Amino acid sequence: MRWKWLFVFYWKRLLKSKLYIGASFSFFLLLAVRFTLFFTDPYNMESYGDIPHEVFMLVQIVSLFYIVWFYLLYSNELRYGVSSWFADGYRILLEKMSALLAVHALCQGIMLMMSCGVFSLVYLFVGVEPSDLYWSLLRFLAVYQFGPLVLTVLYGVIIALLLETKKASFFAMLLVWILTGPMTTELFIDLSKTVHARDWASLLFIGKHAIQRAYDSYIGFEVDRGGEWKWAAWFLSLVGLALLSSIRFTQTRKERNAVLKAFLVFPFLIVLTAYHSLQTNTKAFTRADQTTELEEYRRMPQTIKADLRYRIQSYDISLHGSRAVVRVALSQLETNRPTFQLYHLYPLHSIEADHQPVKFTRNGDLVTVWLPKRTSTLTFSYEIVDTALIPYTNGRIVLLADRAWYPKRRASHMYQAYEYQVAGTRAWDGAFTDQFVPNETYTFTLNVDGDVLFCNVPKRGTVYRGKAQAVTLIKGQGHQLVDQGYEITYPADWPHMAERAPTVIHQMEKTFRHVQQIASTAVSSLPNKIVFSSFGLSSFLANDHLVYNTNDLYGIDQYIMEQNFYEKILRLSVPPKGSRIMYNEWISLATRWLMQKQGLSVIDWSSKSEWFESQPSSVKKQIEAIYQAFQPLDVDQKQQCLRTWYANMDDGWTWDRIFEMMQEVNGVGGRH
């Protein structure tokens, strides 16, 4: 009964507090300001899934006011030692702490539901379709808004118990506010960049490692059991610290012993929850995990001995949970040491030939199988795990055809990293080696549990079966529609796609036809299955499906008017030829020709490819001369130059020869 009256007492105090109510009101006022700035921005990115990341800054701001209010409230009560006037004074002190915590948690629960309602209304207003995105939004706000704000009551109470009304308490509050806020990873970004998802140091951060990204296409918000277990570890740690801090207020030895016994349980619970957090943390949104993974590829030798004297007839793939079993039917096997490409971060449990385990070795993404005798089938058993390049979170996974998520007949790693110079500074870039998927086709049979959003192989009964160059499989959060005969898959946070899709598809078809006027394309026509994404996925083009990543700058309808759209279509459809610098400068000029074909008035003819700065001065002068010779040509002359350039581009094709060709075209008019 007394606890109930304490709860009511603190609830009334809270409602009458100008500081607490003002901080809570400011949270929503600042949120409204952020929404206003977002929607009035002429360069609106339309990355609606990332809007909830605004709560990190808001939580950081208001949490300071909460800490101060709880400190002042509790320290004033301790100042007069009222609890010591009663025989069960220590019990009263604990009841006050728990009642105050309960009141604050209730208030923050109300704010959580209000925040989720505001975000949901914004999503419905802009046209984001109903889906489990709204449920994962609630989980996201619960972990990164509700969780950190609930902890503020414990910060204030602990400081009050330790320092009471001493002046040093204000410095302590400021220090705690800085070190425990969700913006810590940004304040100490050099440190957070080095912390992996499953490093113990990640437990020091209550917020995300990279706060700017809250949503990834098809994977969804960063909500997993790891974040929830981490909050539980923080909560238990602070409750234990509060108990330990209050021990000096005990009045009897029995009370002190009881507190010490209770406190002994907390280290076990804290370690247990922290361990579960590290085991279930996702790597999908963590800077350090991706950096480390790319560094591994930079260190891998690019030239590796591989034996590909065999052919693959078919794949039988079984995916149940995270366990993958792939049966590969072989033909024309002319070696006892066949080499396959399989993602090196997937734990490979066993390889069997004729139902008997065989030895194998791994070198990066290349697996060499040691066969005692020739065989017609190999069975690979391995685990699908969460990594930076292929995230696997909450049962959601995007297995793209350009990834080595099943054994492939390849002699290279799945990902290639290369170095170049920008303004004299060393820079790295990379690409998946199957951006242009080989033309050979195989028969695929996929047995997959759970809901599949997209698969380029047709579904027949309970399995997916058919012929394809490679397989893309998406089990994630998204939507689909059919427009003009195209099957379109898009992220759950993209609005009004039924209205936008016709414009985008028309522009893609038109641009693809123009590209075919200057170069031979990897496929003859635009595939009828298209997967869109706004961040995280790579882009590639196969005979039966296209994966197109717009990057995180524009909405899909705005994107078609930008230079990057035309450059991306070129890079997707036109295979590289000749040297890297020559191919990139061809892409650069071809992009501007495509923009001119569309009648775009703002074209930067002086801009070169990113590889330009890494070239010697003599080569730079030659390239600049080519740009100067190319710009005054009319559209048809440019088309002829680009077509001749690409057709003849090889290791022997020189800049001088390109310049001469442009002068010849300019001299004869270049019209055919």
UniProtKB/TrEMBL annotation:
Membrane-traversing stretches: 20-40, 55-74, 99-126, 146-163, 170-189, 231-247, 259-278
Name of protein: ABC transporter permease
Organism of provenance: Bacillus caldolyticus
Record has Mitochondrion as a keyword: no
Keywords linked to the UniProt accession: Membrane, Transmembrane, Transmembrane helix
